[in-house]
User: Fold this.
Amino acid sequence: MQQEIFKITAEQKAIRLDIFLSSNMPTLTRSYIKTLIENGNVLVNNKKVKSGYSLKVDDTIIISVPEIQSASIEPENIPLDIIYQDEYLAVINKPQGMTVHPAHTVHSGTLVNALMYHIKDLSGINGEIRPGIVHRLDKDTSGLLVIAKDDETHLNLQKQIQNKSCHRIYKAVTYGKFNLQEGVIQTNLARGKSQHEKIFVVPTGQGRLAITNYKVLNYNQGFSFVEYELKTGRTHQIRVHSAHLGHAIVGDKVYGKPNEKFGLNGQLLHAQMLIFTHPVTKQTLTFTAPLPEYFVNFLKTHNLQDNL
Assistant:
C-alpha cells in the first residue's frame, strides 16, 4: 500500500481536502480520491473527515492508496461496436440495455466484461471493477464512450472532461414544448437519502453543481426532439435536468411518465457525438454514432425527423 503524508502550511489553509489531494497527487482521479476519503483511506490528524473539509495550518494528512489489484472480472465474448481504436484508447458505441461496469447486483454481461475480452490493455486508475472506464453512460442510454488503455491517457481524458474541453453531445426525445428554443440548465444535484437510486435537484450549497446546455431541434404533437451538451458529468444529469424543466425523456422509467405504451426498453437518450484532443498526438478527434433504429422509428412515427 502506497502512503503519502502532507503537513499543511499557511499558504495551503482553507483549501478543500479533495482539491488539495487532486493537486498534489496528480496520478489519482478526483473520483478515486473521493472514494479513498469516503472509505477512510484519508485521515486528517488521524481522523476521518469529508471531502469538503477545509484544511487548517499544521493539519497532517495521511493518504493510503491500496495497490491496484488485477481485475477478477471474467472476460466475455460479447460483441462490441468499436468505432475507433489505437494503442492508447478506444471509442465504443454502447447499445441500450448494457450496464457499463459490474456492481453488487450485476456480475456479467457488462461493457467491462466485453472490454476484458476484446481489449487486452486497460487503465487501472478506477480500480478493480472499472478498468479503462473514463466516463459512464446509464444502462438504458446508448452511444459513445471513450476507453483508456493506460493510466496516463486515462488522466488526460478525465482532465479534458473536468475542464470542459471534451464535448459530449446527446440527442433525446422529451414530452412537451419548451418555452425557449435553447438555454442552459444549472442546478445542484444529489442522491436521494430514502430513494438512493434516484438523483434530485437540491438547493444551492447542497449536492454538486450540474450544468447542461440544450437546443430544441423539432417539436410535433406533444414531443420535442432535443440536443443536449453536458458541461458537467453528474449521475443521470440530462434525465434529471430534462424532467426538472417539465420535459421528461420519453421511455425513462425512473424520471419519466408511468405506463407508457410505446414499447420502448429505456429512455430515448443517445450519446451521439464525442469531441476531444488525443492525449498523445494532440489531434482533435470527432466521433459520431448514428441514432439506434428504435430511436429513428419513433422520430419518423411522430414526424420529428426533419432536423436529423
Remarks:
- Residues 151-162 form the longest helix (12 residues).
- The CA atoms of residues 18 and 33 lie 7 Å apart.
